[in-house]
Amino acid sequence: MDQGLSVVLITFNEGHHIAKCLKAVQAVADEIVVIDSGSTDDTIEVCKAYGARVINLAWSGYSAQKNFGNNQTSLDWILSIDADEVLNETLIQSILKWKRNPQAACFKRMTNYCGTFIKHGGWYPDVKVRLFNKQETQWEGTIHEVLRGLSKENTFLLEGDCLHYSYYSVQQHYAQAEKFTTIQAEDLFQQGKKSPWFKRVFSPISKFIVDYFFRLGFLDGKAGFTVARISAYATFLKYKKLHEHIRLSK
Predict the structure, then answer these.
(1) What is the pLDDT of residues 60-101, one digit of tens each?
(2) Quick check: helix, strand or coil at residue 150?
């Protein structure tokens, strides 16, 4: 007998792409639970059209939203997915087989950047642990959250890709870099980390060289160069904002 599976998503104004996500997960889900933090577009209507149960919850952080969602499911086994992610057919079939003998599992994620799938530069394979038993773990961290005690090294890797439609424009990438580096800098400050001048200068340069050359980002053409450039810029922003936190705290 196949194991029941709950799909959990957190949303905010995802109406422009969430239908693709929900259409794919319908093939593996026994229930879909959406935790929405106040969408003003048609996100909620689209989710309900695909049979999802939508619960409104004021934003309290990535891990907190996801953990709340896990606690609303009627089943123990969870597939956690983002609204801009789509399971490809191979991954769908892998998950259906997984349901016969469930265990904590991970899968590869491939990001579509402004119409181009990025296959190098450290962006692929972007292995994520997303199938787990809610009784055995929970999400931790304020950004790029992880499941306590689970990693790609100690979980089963499924065949197939999760297609990540994250960036539709370069401007969107810059905006996300601004948002995420603010959170990262605050975290580093709370941890007592330092931001010496050489780290602010050389870490971005190192990031670009590693991603573009050593991780073969150049093989992704113009998109690969743009990804490496903005990733390096985000590294600079993170340490610049951390330096500002430290300066203002004195």
Answers:
(1) 999 999 999 999 999 999 999 999 999 999 999 999 999 999
(2) coil
Omega before 102 cis (within 30°)? no
φ and ψ of 220, to 5 deg: -90, 15
Amino acid identity, position 179:
K
First-to-final CA distance of the chain:
62
Nearest to 44 by CA among 35, 24, 7, 84: 35
Mutual angle of helices 221-249 and 197-209, in 10-degree steps:
170
CATH superfamily for 6-167 is Spore Coat Polysaccharide Biosynthesis Protein SpsA; Chain A (3.90.550.10)
DSSP state of 143: S
What are the residue ranges of CATH 3.90.550.10 in the chain?
A: 6-167
For residue 241 the two structure tokens come to 């904002």
User: What are the tens digits of pLDDT across the range 91-116?
Assistant: 999 999 999 999 999 999 999 999 99
The tokens describing 235, both together, are 């590294």
Token couple for 250: 């004195």
- Contact at 8 Å (CB) between 98 and 4? no
